[in-house]
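Entry type: protein chain
Record version: 2
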Amino acid sequence: MKLMRYNHKREKTTQARLGVLVGNELVADLRAAYARYLIEEIGNPKGRELAAIFLPAYIAQFLHVGAAAWEALSETYGWLSDLVKSEPDALGLGGEPLFIPLAECRLHSPVRGSKLIAVGRNYPGQAKDGKHAGKLPACFIKVPSCVLGPGRDILKPAATRQLDCETELAVVIGKKCKHVPEDKAYDVIAGYTIINDVTARDITSLEQQSGNPMLGKTFDTFAPMGPWLVTKVEVHDPMHLRLRTRVNGELRQDGNTSEMTHSIAKLVSYLSQMTLMPGDVISTGSPNGGGLTRSEWFLNAGDVIECEIEKIGTLVNAVVDEPKN
């Protein structure tokens, strides 16, 4: 299943809700559908109240609810898959459409968890400075103000002349966990999405001279995410997925998750030495390419970036100059 936060383009963004992709590129309103299903199909008069609890507006909230939410999702998705064939114009209990075309939707970042942990130097030949992955993963934090939804503009700060991008497979944690063994790592994963790890290379280079990079990785909008969360049952082998980055249609990165130095299981196990919460995200690194490979590939205002990962989809964002205050 492809889960998303969305609203109709004619609606206010405050009306964003939980949806799932069904049928022929249609997005279904999960809460409204579950309420109707409970009342009309199951005969439960508290359908509206239960739908609000088990299928809330945010995916992180959904994950916090746990097994009961997944059961509600499974029941609703199965019912919707049949309903869309027989009643494509179906309405919810309040008269709202249950299905709207994906093209008419505005998608939001799938999750905003308590932590967004990114992994650097996790693919061979990624860096030109001679530093490569060591025995432990090289990790850093992206802050919440970095997170950006699909189709939104990446702001290029005036301070950088070397803006870069990287397509990364992102792992979304599905349950509270700590000290997870590698052979149990997939048990705590809810699914996967795409992150574009945007970096101001010249800023990080200066910061590294004094210690550790921070601003160069965490300017506003430096972590576009989406377009949705693909549940783990839909991705049979996340360690064999093709990743590609295109800028203005030109291929800039082309790799495969099989090339990772530290596997998904190892990353989850290592990072779970601290408590991981539902909705936390681990961005697993990126193959060689981009501005680190060719300096003329640094980004400018007007560039359009497509981050594509097999079985997940394509995340598209454009670059604009950050407005002056």
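Comment: The radius of gyration is 20 Å.
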